[in-house]
Design goal:
heterodimer; A: alpha+beta; Gyrase A, domain 2; Elongation Factor Tu (Ef-tu), domain 3; 2 domains; six-stranded mixed sheet; six-stranded antiparallel β-barrel; 7 helices; 21% helix; globular; B: alpha+beta; OB fold (Dihydrolipoamide Acetyltransferase, E2P); six-stranded antiparallel sheet; three-stranded antiparallel sheet
């Protein structure tokens, strides 16, 4: 067990490699109760949408009810406050799922910008959540509903869809999203009622999986992590997240900096690098070199159970990020060959 | 926890086997391999490397962490275990046999005698 953003979380149950392979071949369940849940609403029609559209980078106005979108919260310098998924519920209120380490910062930044007629509720303390990920997830969603006594289970919504299923025990939200690149869902409810859902999905066949597996799975798909790749002084343009930014919007924090970067380019960017020979595992902080010159640093690294080699996300000088570039990883005074590859790794 | 009687031990969890003819084989103990968890990489010294007792001579690495291995005695490295390049987990499955790390020609035979015996090491790891 380790401290993760103030929470006591398991790194692994049976083993990181087995848990990660279980996700891709069948399915596993992660306890993601540490994450944050924010609700944004207004009694005035359209006010919540308009406010979020001016604050988040994505096109909130084109988000349909019953769906979510990957989005970014930026500061005035175009740097990351957080990355998140914003869901529009059927009553035109919004459900934002944010990183555990950024809940306070997100709440403060949003409160500072939301107009008086839009309400923000931080329900993070009250909610728990689990993520079920893998090809069997949809089947297991049916199984856990039956275990709960439901004779007509509902199917999972389409990808990025959200079900808002109020129960006698309180709110119950199920989203077809995840951090592994596999099919799956995330289930949010009042924490005291979450336990039986975990038990039921384990009974259905899910392997319990911890932070170690979670990290290597998202790394295999080249997904960034707040605090490792995404920081307050890096921008979406540098981090390959322009797809989450709608530059046609006239206004959102950081927009002018992004416009500059799109026009003039950036000095550094993220790239995906794979070890090409036998080497120690890549770890954050290791240097990336070419011809003995340091050109970058590893931001996240690990051993891919699927590829059986080391993979890493690196923060690297512009020009060295191109697919095919041959580089070296500096580890304990020796250099080991690696190469920039197209994303995703797997 | 396996602590073979016929070996000598260091405080940093290396074991030494006297092969005779002034050569010793060195590895890490069962206690050490269990703490490390499954090894994914081992860095070993080149043959003919001259070493003093206490020098950092090798590195064993798991997903969890990397640990330095120290020369338990002074001498010259004679050979490193090439099998560990392809299968570092031999250190976990057979720490006193196929998982040996390197062999040293010792410069002072008495140095091995003054190392901890199995009983003393057994006490050391139960503290």
């Amino acid at each position: 067990m380790v401290d993760f953003a103030g929470w006591n979380l398991p790194v692994q149950y049976a083993g990181i490699k087995d848990e990660a392979l279980a996700v891709r071949s069948g399915g596993a369940v992660f306890d993601i109760s540490h994450m944050g849940q924010l609700f944004v609403s207004s009694s005035i029609e359209g006010a919540a949408e308009a406010a979020l559209d001016r604050i988040l980078t994505s096109s909130v106005s084109s988000l349909k009810a019953g769906f979510g979108q990957y989005s970014l919260l930026l500061n005035d310098n175009g740097g990351f406050v957080d990355d998140l998924i914003a869901y529009r519920l059927q009553d035109d209120s919004y459900f934002l799922v944010v990183n555990a380490s950024r809940i306070s910062e997100d709440e403060a930044w949003l409160r500072a910008q939301l107009p008086d007629d839009v309400t923000l509720e931080n329900s993070s303390e009250e909610f728990g959540a689990i993520a079920v990920q893998g090809p069997k997830s949809a089947k297991w969603f049916e199984a856990v509903q039956r275990a709960d006594g439901e004779s007509s289970p509902v199917p999972l919504p389409d990808r990025y869809g959200i079900l808002d299923l109020p129960r006698s025990t309180g709110r119950f939200l199920v989203c077809r999203t995840g951090y592994t690149g596999e099919d799956g869902f995330e289930l949010f409810c009042t924490s005291e009622f979450l336990g039986p859902w975990w038990d039921a999905v384990i009974d259905a066949g899910a392997t319990p999986a911890g932070l170690g597996a979670r990290d290597i799975l998202r790394l295999e798909k080249c997904m960034s992590l707040y605090g490792s790749e995404l920081t307050e002084d890096r921008s979406p343009i540098q981090c390959g997240l322009k797809f989450a930014v709608d530059m046609t919007k006239p206004e959102f924090p950081g927009r002018s900096v992004l416009a500059q970067q799109i026009e003039h380019g950036v000095d550094h960017r993220l790239a995906c690098v794979k070890q090409t020979g036998k080497a120690p595992p890549p770890r954050p902080g290791y240097e990336i070199l070419q011809d003995d010159r340091v050109v970058g640093t590893i931001t996240s690294g690990g051993l891919s159970p699927t590829l059986e080699c080391g993979i890493a996300l690196v923060w690297i000088e512009n020009g060295y990020h191109k697919v095919g570039t041959e580089l070296m990883m500096g580890i304990r005074g020796k250099q080991y060959p690696c190469q920039v590859v197209k994303k995703p790794f797997v | 926890m396996s602590v073979p009687e016929n070996l000598r031990y260091s405080e940093s969890h290396e074991w030494v086997l006297d092969d005779g003819d002034g050569i010793v084989t060195v590895g890490i103990t069962d206690f050490a391999q269990e703490k490390m968890t499954e090894l994914v990489f081992v860095e070993l010294p080149d043959a003919d490397t001259e070493i003093a007792a206490g020098d950092e001579l090798a590195v064993v690495e798991s997903v969890k962490s990397a640990s330095d291995i120290y020369a338990p005695v002074s001498g010259v490295v004679v050979e490193s275990n090439a099998a560990l390049e392809d299968d570092p987990t031999l250190v976990n499955s057979a720490p006193y046999a196929d998982g040996w790390l390197f062999k040293i020609r010792v410069s002072d035979a008495a140095a091995v005698e003054s190392m901890m015996d199995a009983a003393a090491y057994g006490n050391h790891i139960s503290e």
